[in-house]
Protein: Antibiotic biosynthesis monooxygenase
Organism: Streptomyces gibsoniae
Amino acid sequence: MSDRIRILLFCRAPAEGPEVIERAYHEISKTLADTPGLLGNELLHSLIEDDAFAVMSEWESFEAFHAWDEGPEHKGQTAGLRPYQDRTRRPWDMYAVRATY
């Protein structure tokens, strides 16, 4: 079993189009590049719903994520995507990596 966790943030593109989500994702990712414990992230686009996106970030541990999440920089660093969070569902979820091949 691994200590790694993955966070999924669910977003919906605004009427202006998916480029808004893509721009915000790239800007945020640049600011997070040297965040302790962050192993990486990906922008996922739904093949079912054209306006649906998810950002998957992988962290070395829950403790590393929690330290960043509770830190003073978190809110400012992720503000660009906050208006597009999918509020029709829980806008984010957290998963532990239980197995990998």
